[in-house]
């Protein structure tokens, strides 16, 4: 007999015993009071880490405790497909072999992505078993199972028919390489040695100018206002007046908004709602239209607002050319070093282009209202109760 405890031998047999005897299988027809936990499904992008082990142990404790107290206890396991994130890791894997998804073609790429997902699903569930998880494997789900997919479609159509889902323009993190909107969690911020360019916007019909500071001069063609802080003494007299965008001569208003930091740059910002999420919000507050000047490929759009020399040019090329033209017109006042965080696509590290895009939205207010009522009348309880807010 072994003198030390061999977890591998002993625990494998115990788990096998539990499985063979269906110890964790919940009976839907049971007369006992039900107690169930649906696992927050781990992504198949990777395997379980220590955080999952902690989380799973807590769920296991609760499930086992209630099972022993005579409840019909169900802990329902599963994994999440994680959508774009899984495509992302598979593409990174391919990149190591010097290939892209386009080399494989759609069918082959979908196939190897499924292989990846199935492989990780198996590994994840096995890791849970090693933790002694008392979940009901006969009910394991994957969020791309036919049943789950059908449920998503049904809910989508139902919400659409109720007018709770609609299409609208909204600023998104766009990756010009992936040709896809990227969620906030898939956007990584990296510090870059950027520059801050100070550009002089002449006032309309009078002498003088207002100098704005920007990290992205190429977006100036999409400006719809210059904004200053309402409490900024030095710009008090300019609020409500108009200035002119250099190089193209389009007139835009000078507005006041609390969002502007008096101490940043010159204290005056150009507002480009179509290509900056903060500007998008400022634009909404002041009812300003958005002018999109960069397309989904990251190229300058050939529209009336963009200087003709830049039409169709890549955003970085356009930046260089814009700076040169501003210098030639003697409206580039100052250039300072400005290290700042730049959003990158987690999939391919391309710099994100915030841009306006047609997106689906869910009207949350009526849905949230019903949920809040259920919390208030006690049907749903938060533990600890401070999360009820
Ligand atoms: Zn990308």
Describe this structure in words.
The chain has 389 residues and is of the alpha/beta class. The chain folds into three domains: 136 residues, HUPs (Rossmann fold), CATH 3.40.50; 47 residues, no CATH class; 177 residues, Alpha-Beta Complex (Isoleucyl-tRNA Synthetase, domain 2), CATH 3.90.740.10. Helix content is 33%, strand content 23%. It has nine helices and 14 strands. The strands form five sheets. It has a four-stranded mixed beta sheet, covered by helices on one side. β1, α2 and β2 form a beta-alpha-beta unit. It is elongated, with a radius of gyration of 28 Å. It starts with 6 loop residues before the first helix and ends in a 13-residue tail after the last helix. The model has no long low-confidence stretch (mean pLDDT 93). The structure holds zinc ion. This is valine--tRNA ligase. Its EC number is 6.1.1.9.
Features:
389 residues; alpha/beta; Rossmann fold; Isoleucyl-tRNA Synthetase, domain 2; three-stranded antiparallel beta sheet; 14 strands; 33% helix; 23% strand; binds zinc ion
Task: Report the structural category.
Answer: alpha/beta
**Distinct ligand kinds:** zinc ion
Total number of helices: 9
CATH class of the largest domain: Alpha Beta
Major β-sheet, in short?
A: 4 strands, mixed
**Unreliable runs, pLDDT <50, ≥5 residues?**
none
Supply the number of structural domains: 3
Order of helices and strands: HEHEEHHHEHEEEEEEEEHHEEH
Determine the CATH topology of the largest domain. Answer: Isoleucyl-tRNA Synthetase, domain 2
In what range is the share of β-strand residues? 15-25%
| Shape descriptor | elongated
**Gyration radius from CA atoms, angstroms:** 28 Å
Give the N-terminus to C-terminus distance in angstroms.
Answer: 57 Å
CATH superfamily of the largest domain: Valyl/Leucyl/Isoleucyl-tRNA synthetase, editing domain
Total strand segments: 14
CATH architecture of the largest domain: Alpha-Beta Complex
The strand order across the widest sheet is 10-11-9-12
Helix content: 25-40%
Instruction: Please state the average pLDDT score.
Output: 93
């Amino acid at each position: 007999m072994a003198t030390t405890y061999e977890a591998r031998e002993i625990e494998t047999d115990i788990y096998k015993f539990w499985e063979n005897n269906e110890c964790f299988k919940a009976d839907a027809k049971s007369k006992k009071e039900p107690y169930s936990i649906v696992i927050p499904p781990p992504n198949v992008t990777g395997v379980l880490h220590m955080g999952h082990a902690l989380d799973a142990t807590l769920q296991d404790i609760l499930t086992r405790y209630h099972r022993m107290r005579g409840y019909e206890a169900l802990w329902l396991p599963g994994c999440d497909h994680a959508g774009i994130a899984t495509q992302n890791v598979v593409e990174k894997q391919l990149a190591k072999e010097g290939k892209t998804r386009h080399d494989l073609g759609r069918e082959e790429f979908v196939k190897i992505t499924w292989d990846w997902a199935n492989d990780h699903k198996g590994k994840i569930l096995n890791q849970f078993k090693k933790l002694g998880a008392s979940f009901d494997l006969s009910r394991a789900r994957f969020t791309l199972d036919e049943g789950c997919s059908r449920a998503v479609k049904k809910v989508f159509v139902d919400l659409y028919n109720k007018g709770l889902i609609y299409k609208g323009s909204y600023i998104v993190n766009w990756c010009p390489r992936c040709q896809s909107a990227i969620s906030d969690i898939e956007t990584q911020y990296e510090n870059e040695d950027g520059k801050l360019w100070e550009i002089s916007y002449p006032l309309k019909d009078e002498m003088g100018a207002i100098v704005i500071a920007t990290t992205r001069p190429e977006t100036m063609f999409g400006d719809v206002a210059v904004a200053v802080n309402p409490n900024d003494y030095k710009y008090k007299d300019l609020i409500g007046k108009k200035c002119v965008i250099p190089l193209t001569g389009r007139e835009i208003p000078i507005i006041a908004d609390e969002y502007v930091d008096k101490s940043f740059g010159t204290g005056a910002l150009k507002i480009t709602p179509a290509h900056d999420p903060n500007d998008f919000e400022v634009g909404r507050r002041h009812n300003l239209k958005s002018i999109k000047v960069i397309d989904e490929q990251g190229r300058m759009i050939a529209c009336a607002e963009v200087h003709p020399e830049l039409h169709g040019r890549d955003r970085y090329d356009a930046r260089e050319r814009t700076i040169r033209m501003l210098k030639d017109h003697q409206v580039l006042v100052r250039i300072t070093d400005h290290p700042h965080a730049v959003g990158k696509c987690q999939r391919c590290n391309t710099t994100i282009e915030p841009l306006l895009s047609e997106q689906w939205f869910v009207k949350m207010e009526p849905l949230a209202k019903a949920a809040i009522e259920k919390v208030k009348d006690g049907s749903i309880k938060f533990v600890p109760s401070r999360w009820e807010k």
